[in-house]
Amino acid sequence: MGHAPSDPDQFVLDLLSSPEPSLEDGVPGRNHEALTWLAQFCENTADDTAPSSLLLWGAPGCGKTFWLTAWARASEPPPILLDCRQRDAEALAREGLEANIGPQRLWLIDNLDAASPPLQGILFRLWVGLRERGQRLVCSAGAAPARLTHLREDLRTRLGQGLIFELTELSEPEQLQALRERAHRLGWMSSPLSESYDHLFGYMLTRLPRNLAFLTRLMDAANSRALALQRPISLPLVRALFESSLMHA
Questions:
Q1: Hey, what long-range contacts does 175-178 have (CB within 8 A, 24 or more apart)?
Q2: For the chain (length 249 residues), average pLDDT per consecutive 10?
Q3: Can you list the pairs that 149-153 forms with residues at least 24 positions away whose Cβ atoms lie under 8 Å?
């Protein structure tokens, strides 16, 4: 095991950083079926009878961007991830359309509902080209197709012909279990079903921002800090790290 950093500020900086999403850190919750299909699309294991597109929709915090980004990083060859909120999204989509990028590359289109009218036109043509080559497309949006009334009708029609799943946020019991599993991976307890740190997790879920990515980073920072100080994990240690992050934010 490497040496933990001794500079207190470094723990806070690590906590405030935004590490890239990874499949290892993902918690499916009640989204198992949707994420199974996403895995099949990204691994190119869906059979020939499967629809050519998959739309994942849901409210902010449900994990749409997390899962698309995690799969974009984990798949080989890497899918092409396009966030429609990017300034250069239109240029990137046009480049992909004109270059006919990678006959076997999967396109992951995040935040489709944020696409400008010109970008929507490019994406529709891209979609048609992908389908002609037998490729598939994955999109995310904040609402179901019927509510995406600002999108081009032909684009909405295509969305409606594919697989559509709503992603739901993790419930409090699911978040609690996710924190237990993280603690188990960090070596705090011998079983991911142990309740020995539930008092700490209860505090984190009720008194701190209920953002699982942030809470797991807080646990990682607390683990490093405890190693550096040769102290056990405790509520005061976690609280002190959180309060320091507020001062540095």
A1: 175/27, 175/205, 175/210, 175/212, 175/215, 176/201, 176/202, 176/205, 178/27, 178/212, 178/216
A2: 52 65 90 97 90 94 94 90 94 81 77 96 89 89 94 92 95 94 95 96 93 88 91 94 77
A3: 150/113, 151/112, 151/113, 151/115, 151/120, 152/117, 152/120, 152/121, 152/124
Map tokens 């006919």 to a residue: 100
Tokens of 111: 């935040």
Residue 166's SS3 state is: strand
- The secondary structure element, H or E, covering residue 141 is strand 137-141
Instruction: Name the nearest CA neighbour of 34 among 169, 165, 174, 138.
Output: 165
- Residue 147 tokens read as 């509510």
Bridge partner residues of 57 (DSSP): 141, 166
Q: How far apart are the first and last CA of the chain?
A: 30
Other Cβ atoms less than 10 A from the Cβ of 63: the count is 26
User: Tokens 């400008």 appear where?
Assistant: 116
